[in-house]
Design goal:
The chain is of the alpha+beta class and about 220 residues long. The protein is about 40% helix and about 15% strand. It has a five-stranded antiparallel beta sheet. Strand 3 (about 95-100) and strand 4 (about 100-105) form a beta hairpin. Helix 2 (about 10-20) packs antiparallel against helix 3, helix 5 packs across helix 7 (about 180-195) and helix 6 packs across helix 7. Residues about 1-10, about 130-135 and about 210-215 have low confidence and may be disordered.
């Protein structure tokens, strides 16, 4: 825990998460510093902390555009993207799943720029092979300034609601930019099209699973 949280934050939710961190570091569990980062996205930071203090196992709604943007893709395609990011790329920032979608937390501004980059890549691919592969990359949903997203609870609830795959664990998490997300989209689409996808870093699909481990977490 940082001095800032110890000395200036009265909320018991941080103490709860800090105590839960002792002897345990799981990829899908939010740390106290991760909770502070999430709360910093809320216009009313104190209100967000009060909500989580009383209901740490409930989801919350946070605005995009200042602390993070969110790129939402089909969950199966999203897993292929994460395979590429972790096996060949720089890794990922926080990642969540909700209602069959995978939510990749990105740098602010990525939601505005990514669609144009995808259009450029589709045009370039069409020019290379003359077949127009604009549909090769499933169109993501990009949430930026003016949008809000549902984020998973601080602690796993054991329900079918949103859950973390890679939970925030620091007050300054590394977040991919639009170019990195574009790279992952293209690599995932090419792997799917070639029907030669490498063995996944993920365990067999288990709807009730709460965590998988990674070794290159940023």
């Amino acid at each position: 825990m940082t001095t800032w949280l110890r000395e200036e934050t009265p909320h018991d939710v941080f103490r709860f998460l800090r105590d839960d961190d002792e002897g345990r570091h799981q990829t899908a569990r939010v740390t106290a510093d991760g909770a502070a980062w999430l709360a910093s996205a809320a216009a009313g930071r104190e209100a967000a902390l009060t909500h989580w203090e009383s209901r740490p196992a409930s989801p919350a709604t946070l605005p995009c555009g200042t602390v993070f943007d969110v790129v939402s893709v089909d969950q199966v395609f999203g897993r292929r993207m994460l395979d590429r990011l972790w096996a060949e790329g720089p890794g990922s920032g926080p990642v969540a799943v909700h209602r069959g979608r995978m939510m990749l937390f990105t740098v602010p501004g990525a939601a505005q720029r990514l669609p144009a980059l995808l259009d450029w890549e589709a045009d370039a691919a069409s020019g290379r092979d003359g077949r127009g592969r604009a549909g090769a990359v499933p169109r993501p949903l990009c949430h930026g300034r003016g949008d809000a997203v549902t984020v998973p609870p601080l602690v796993p609830s054991g329900t079918a609601g949103p859950r973390w795959l890679v939970a925030p664990d620091t007050r300054h998490p590394w977040l991919p930019g639009p170019e990195v997300v574009l790279w992952a989209c293209v690599r995932a689409a090419r792997a799917a099209a070639a029907a030669d996808v490498r063995v996944s870093i993920f365990p067999p699909a288990d709807p009730g699973a709460n965590v998988y481990d990674v070794s290159r977490r940023r």
